[in-house]
Amino acid sequence: MKIKKIQNLDNFTGTILIPVFETTAKSIVPIEYHGVTVYSQVFYGKKDTHYLVEKYDCTHVFIGLGKEQDYKSLKTIFRRIAAKQKEVFAKNVIVVIPESFLPNQVEAAISGLLLGTYDLGHYKKKELHPFLNTDFELNYISNKDIEEAITKGIKIANAQLETFALVDLPPNKITPKYLAHWATETGAKYGFEVTVFGKDKATEVGLHSFLSVGKGSAQEPQFIIMEYKPDNAKKHIGLVGKGITFDTGGLNIKTAGMVQMKCDMAGGAAILGAMQLISDLKLPIRVTAIVPACENSVDALSFLPSDVIQSYAGHSIEIIDTDAEGRLILADGLSYLIRNYKPETVVDLATLTGSVVGTLGYECAGLFTNNEELSKKLQQAGDAIGERLWQLPLWDAYKPDIESEIADVKNYSGKPVAGAISAAKFLEFFTDNHTSWAHLDIAGVAFGDDEFAKTKHATAYGVHLITNYIENL
Fold first, then answer.
1. Is beta strand 317-318 parallel, antiparallel or unpaired with respect to 308-309?
2. Residue 231 has what pLDDT?
3. Catalytic one of 254, 388, 399, 456
4. Going by C-beta distance under 8 Å and a sequence separation of 6 or more, which residues neighbour residue 256?
5. pTM of the model
6. Which is the CATH superfamily of the domain at 2-142?
7. How far apart are CA 116 and CA 95, in angstroms?
8. 470-473 long-range Cβ contacts below 8 angstroms, 24+ apart
C-alpha cells in the first residue's frame, strides 16, 4: 500500500471517504462536500451509519462518526467500512481527515481501515482486499502534518493483523516451532534478538514445570526469549505470554469448548505482536519477553493429576488438575525472566481462567498486582485505546487456596470460586516477591464474537495495550 498526501480533488477519480460528525435528523443545514449535498432526512452523521453517492466519477462514502469519538469507536467505524464496503473501493482512495481530529484519532482511523482487510477464511479461495493489492494507493487530505500519526496507525494495524493470524490459524499450523520461527523471522526484520530453547536445552536449564505440560504432545516445546535493546534505554520491562498452542486439558480432559482451544496461546501471540510493534516504533525502552510455547495433549507420557513436579525456581508443585497448565508454564517463564534478566517491571498475559470471564464477562481483562502505580498506568494505557482492565484482589487471604500438604504449592484450589485469584496467587509465588509485577488474565477478551466474522476469532487484545503502556513510561 502506498500512502500519499494530496492537496485537492482536482482530476481525482476513485473512492472518497468523508467522515461526518453527527448533527440531527431535523437539521436544516445539509452536509456538503465535493459538490455533493446530503440532506439530514437521509443521513446526518449518526454513529454506525454511512451513505454512498456516485458523482464526478467518484464514489463518495459519507461515514457517520456520532457525537463522541473515542479511540476504540473510531477504529471500529473505519474497520467496518473497509471490511463491509470493500466492493466500493477503487484503485485510488482518499480519506478526508477532519480538521478537529487529534493525532490519536487519525491513528485510530487509519489503523481501523487496515484491520478491515482481515479475512478469517485463511484456507478459502478469495480475492484480495483492494487495500492489499501492490499498486493500491491510499491518499489523504489534511491541513495538518499528520504523516507521523498515519505511519503509527499502519504499524499498529500490521502488528495486530499478525496477531489475528497467529491466534486464528489452526493448531496443526500454529505449533510451538511455528511460533519460534515466527519470532526469529520477525526479530530479524524489526530488530530484536531471539533465543529459543528446545526440549534438550530446556531440560538442561531446568525448566521442569514448562516441560511437564508438553510431555504428552508430539510437538516439541519451545521456550522463546526475545530481547529488544535500544541504545540509551530508559528502563527495562519484562513480558511473559502464555503460549499453549492447543489445550486438550491433558488427562483432566476438557468436556466442552475444546474446539476453541487453539486460542490458548493468545497471551503469547499478544506478546509476539507487541514485540514487533515496540521494535517497529523504536521505543526507547529495553524489553525482554518470554513466550513458553507447548501443546497440552494426551498420551502415555502425559503428566498425571497428583504428580509432584519441579520448577525452574526450585519449588515443588503438586498437580491437582492438568487443565490448570497455563500457570505451570508461566511459572517457569516468570522465574527465568526475573532471575536472569532482572527487569524493573514484569507483566504477564494469559488466557488463564474461565473464572475471570464469570467475574468480568467479555468487556475487560482481569488485572492482578500489588503495585498501585503499575495498576494505574496499565489501566490508563488500556482506557486510552479501548482495551480495558479491572483490578481484582491479591490478598493473602487467598493464599491457602494454593497450599499443598505434599509439595511447596499446588496448581489448583479445587474450589468453584475465586479461580482467577488463586491462579494469580500461584503465579505470584514464582515472582520472587518482585515489587513491580502484574498479571493480566485475558481469557474473556482475547477471542470472541463481533460483527467481523460469524464465529469466534482473535481480537489481538494486549498488543496495543502493552505497547501504549511502555510508550508512556
1. antiparallel
2. 96
3. 254
4. none
5. 0.97
6. Leucine Aminopeptidase, subunit E, domain 1 (3.40.220.10)
7. 15
8. 470/237, 470/278, 470/283, 470/285, 470/287, 471/281, 471/283, 472/377, 472/380, 472/381, 473/234, 473/235, 473/237, 473/285, 473/377
CA distances from 353 to 254, 336, 370 (A): 13, 23, 20
Is 254 marked active-site?
yes
Q: What is the DSSP annotation of 279-321?
A: HHTT-SSEEEEEEEEEEE--STT---TT-EE--TTS--EE-S-
Taking the C-alpha atoms of residue 75 and residue 80, their distance in angstroms, rounded to an integer, is 9
Coil/strand/helix, residue 215: coil
CATH fold, domain 155-471, is Aminopeptidase (3.40.630)
Q: Sign of the CA dihedral 173, 220, 276, 464?
A: positive
Can you give the pLDDT at residue 303? 98
Neighbouring-strand partners of residue 468: none
Please state the domain extents for the chain.
2-142, 155-471
Which residue among the candidates 80, 152, 155, 327 is catalytic per the annotation? 327
CB atoms within 10 A of CB 103: 15
Location of C-alpha cell 529495553 = 286
**308-309 vs 36-38, strand pairing mode:** unpaired
Give the strand pairing for 243-247 and 345-350.
Answer: unpaired
Pairing of strands 286-296, 236-241: parallel
- pLDDT per residue as tens digits for the range 218-253: 999 999 999 999 999 999 999 999 999 999 999 999
pLDDT tens column, 271-324? 999 999 999 999 999 999 999 999 999 999 999 999 999 999 999 999 999 999
Whether 49 has a pLDDT exceeding 90, the answer reads: yes
Q: Is 388 a catalytic residue?
A: no
Query: Tens digit of pLDDT for each residue in 102-144?
Result: 999 999 999 999 999 999 999 998 889 999 988 888 999 999 9
Percent of the chain with pLDDT over 90: 94
